[in-house]
Design brief:
- This protein is α/β, with parallel strands linked by helices.
- It is 43% helix and 15% strand.
- The protein contains 11 helices and 12 strands.
- The structure holds (3R)-3-hydroxy-L-norvaline.
- The site of (3R)-3-hydroxy-L-norvaline (VAH) has 11 residues, from loops.
Length: 295
Amino acid sequence: MCRKQYGTENVILSDIKKAPPEVYRSGPFVYADVLDYKNLRELVVNNRITWLVHYSALLSVVGEANVALARKINITGLHNVLDLALESCLRLFVPSTIGAFGPSSPRDPAPDLCVQRPHTIYGVSKVHAELMGEYLHHKYGLDFRCLRYPGIISANTQPGGGTTDYAVQIFHDALSTGHHECYLRADTRLPMMHIGDCHRATVEFMHAPECQLSLRTYNIAAMSFTPEEVSTEIRKHLPHLKVTYNPDSVRQTIADSWPVRFDDSNAQRDWGWKSTYGLEELVSDMLQANYLTYS
Ligand code: VAH
């Protein structure tokens, strides 16, 4: 999406490993380690980078399994990116998440401003990112922008160690084996979003005039569904899908601490956010996009 809008040579994808061809089709790719400040600075200076979108992080479940690494990547890595953005006057986007809330936060809906006491290192690191970005904005004028993403559903990426992974895996299972074993209870409702809406929200927010922004961090919403609801919608296309439930205590406990729905009225008012994919559109698109892989 970004490369269509800004030109292939003007968007550089970076990571410590190259994405598979079906995800990364063309344009510049460079190796970048978020823990190597010198490497990051050279990339920014040599390529005259002006906007930096920082996605490096360990997600909720994989972070709980390796707290020390999650602290390094999610917090030390973040500080490298914050320092670089200040030094090079970059516009900086850092995603936050529904995981930045905890059991003492309002859950239905969760507003932009409320108690945030998450119970995962992932959530703690994302609250830290929100607060550090806002502090550096007010103290030094850093153009820090942050969106709290719901669970993001994408057809061409595999689940990445998050609590919402089931909502990606269920499509692969529906098209391959016809059976999905869900690690959450059937009635576990979580905010979710199609990758297309996620990308568009990020680009529109990065373009929003500074004068329109009353916050540095915004919730964005699209839909909230349960495993039972998404299974029922998939069965409209694949009637034989069988779903069994085997709740995993770690992931169920994390999911039960997160918001059920997001209040994104500030994003709608300040910079015109509006989602386009609901559950019906999501399921239809995911099955079509993956069908070729399994047919
Ligand atoms: C996770 N998919 O499950 C991520 C996300 C909304 C949660 O940040 O950890």
